[in-house]
Amino acid sequence: MRILIVKLSSIGDIIKTYRAFYQIRFSYPDAHISWAVEDRYKDTVTHLKGLDDVIALPFKDAKKGSWKPLLVQLRALRKKHFDILFDFHGNFKSAIVTGISRAQTKIGYDRKSVAEWPNLLVTNLKISAPKYLPPDERTLLIVEAITNSKRAATPPLRLMLDKIEKTAIEDFVQQIGQNFLMICPFSAWDQKTLDIADWIRWIQMIRMDWGFQIVIPFFSEKEHLGAKKIQGEFSHVHLWQIKSLNKWQYLMSYSKMVIAVDSASLHLAGVTNIPTFSVFGPTLDNVYRPIGDIHKSFQGCCPFNKTFNQKCKLLRTCAAPCLKKANIMSIHEQFSAHLTVCLNAAKATQQQILAMSSI
After folding, report:
1. Is the pLDDT of residue 306 over 90?
2. Stretch 41-64: mean pLDDT
3. In Å, how far are 15, 36, 140, 144 from 27, measured between CA atoms?
4. Could you give the C-alpha distances from 280 to 225, 241, 258, 261, 301, in angstroms and in order?
5. Per-residue pLDDT tens for 236-259?
6. Is 249 helix (H, G, I), strand (E, B) or coil?
7. pLDDT score, position 62
8. Which end of the chain, N or C, is less packed with Cβ atoms under 10 Å?
9. What is the CB neighbour count within 10 angstroms for residue 190?
10. 287: helix, coil or strand?
11. How many CB atoms lie within 10 A of CB 212?
12. Dihedral pair phi/psi, residue 189, rounded to 5°
C-alpha cells in the first residue's frame, strides 16, 4: 500500500500533524508513506521515524514568479500512484497537490471543516472535523474515519538524531547545567508575543523566585538581535541558534519547562511531552495549546474587545498590540503555580522509580 500525506506548511502546523502521521503508520505498518511539503519546511518531516519519502515542493519560488521548478516536481508527483491520500491542509494550495496526485481515495475535510472551499473539489471522501477542536484532534479524526483502528498510544515523539549531533548538544547542556528553562519568545507574528521589555521583567521574576538558568533559542537574525537584548540584562541567559528541528527538540528535552507563545516551539514541546507554559492573545488557548495537564497557558484578550471561537481571523492584517498590555505579574503567578505542580510531579515520579529499583 502507498500513502501520501499532504500538509505543506508551516512549521507549527506540520508539527501538529505528527500524531496523525504516527496513527497512519500504526494502522498501516507495512505501507510506503510519502509526505508532500513545501521545500522550505522539509526539515520538519525529514527526521520523522517511519516516513519513507519526502516530496519537497517549491511553492515559494512559484510565488516569486519562478514556476518551472514547481511544475517539474508536480509532473514527477503525477507519475506516482497512491492508494490513499490524506489532505490535512484543506486549502487552495493543497488542492493543487491533491488534485494533480493519482490516488484511489482522497480524504479531506467537509464543507464546514475545510479552510478554503476549492479544496472540496479534489477530495472524494470528506470528513467532519469541527474547527473548535484542537488541530491534533482534527487530523486524527480524518485518519480514524478510514482506518477504523484504535487510537495508538502517544508516547513522546522523538525526531531522529545521530550520535555526533547528540554529543554537541550534550556538551552545551553540560556547560550551562541541566537545571534550566527554555524560553521561546519569538513568533512570525508580532501580535503573538510580549515586548522585549516585558520578557526582561518576567525573566527577572523567574530568576528571583526560581533561580533557573535560561536558554533562549533563535532562528533568524531579527530573533538573534532580540535575544541579545534580553541576554544583555542577565548573566544566566544563554543563547542557542536553531539549525534544525531535531537538534532543537533534543536540547528542549533537557529543560524543566518550555515557556513560549503560540508558535512552533510550543507545539514541538507538546509532541515531545515536555511541560509547557504559553502566552496567548485573543486566539483561544484551550484550542491551540498542547493537550494534557502538563500544559498550561495565559489567555490574553483582544484590545478591541472582539471575541473569537477559535482564533483571531484578523491576524494577518491587524496591527493591534494584542499582548503588549498583558499583566506580567499575573502571567508570572500562573506560570509559577504550574511549574510548582510539574516539579512536584516529576519529583514524585523519580522517588517511585528509586523505590522500585531498590526492591
Report:
1. no
2. 92
3. 20, 20, 12, 9
4. 23, 24, 14, 6, 8
5. 999 999 999 999 999 999 999 999
6. helix
7. 79
8. C
9. 13
10. helix
11. 20
12. -110, 120
Provide the percentage of residues in the chain whose pLDDT is more than 90: 79
CA R_g for the chain = 21
Closest CA to 35 of 61, 66, 56: 56
Neighbouring CB atoms inside 10 A of 233's CB total: 14
The answer to whether 249 touches 159, Cβ cutoff 8 Å, is: yes
How many CA atoms does the CB half-sphere of 173 hold within 13 Å?
Answer: 20
Cis (ω within 30 of 0) for the bond into 358?
no
Q: How far is CA 57 from the centre of its chain?
A: 20
Question: What domains appear along the chain, each with residue ranges and CATH number?
Answer: 2-147 (3.40.50.2000), 163-357 (3.40.50.2000)
Bridge partners (DSSP) listed for residue 81: 102
**Cell numbers placing 276:** 509547557
Q: What is the pLDDT of residue 355?
A: 66
pLDDT in tens, 220-232: 999 999 999 999 9
* Cell numbers representing residue 344 in the block: 512536584
**DSSP code, position 261:** E
Contact partners, residue 356, CB within 8 Å, separation at least 6: none
Q: How far apart are CA 57 and CA 35, in angstroms?
A: 10
Q: Quote the mean pLDDT of the chain.
A: 92
| Residue 244 burial (CB count, 10 A) | 15
Quick check: 111 and 131 in contact, CB under 8 A? no
pLDDT tens digits along 146-178:
997 788 877 788 999 999 999 999 999 999 988
Q: C-alpha 39: how far from its chain's center?
A: 17
d(CA 357, CA 213) in angstroms, rounded, equals: 31
Residue (of 269, 78, 259, 245) closest to 182 by Cα position: 259
Q: Do residues 93 and 65 make contact, with C-beta atoms less than 8 angstroms apart?
A: no
Q: Residues 6 or more apart from 357 whose CB is under 8 A from it?
A: none
Give the per-residue pLDDT at 354. 60
pLDDT of the residue at 61: 83
* CA-to-CA separations, 204 to 210, 213, 216, 356, in angstroms, rounded: 10, 11, 14, 39
* The C-alpha cell that represents 192 in the structure block: 503573538
Determine the pLDDT at residue 336. 98
pLDDT at residue 356, rounded to an integer: 58
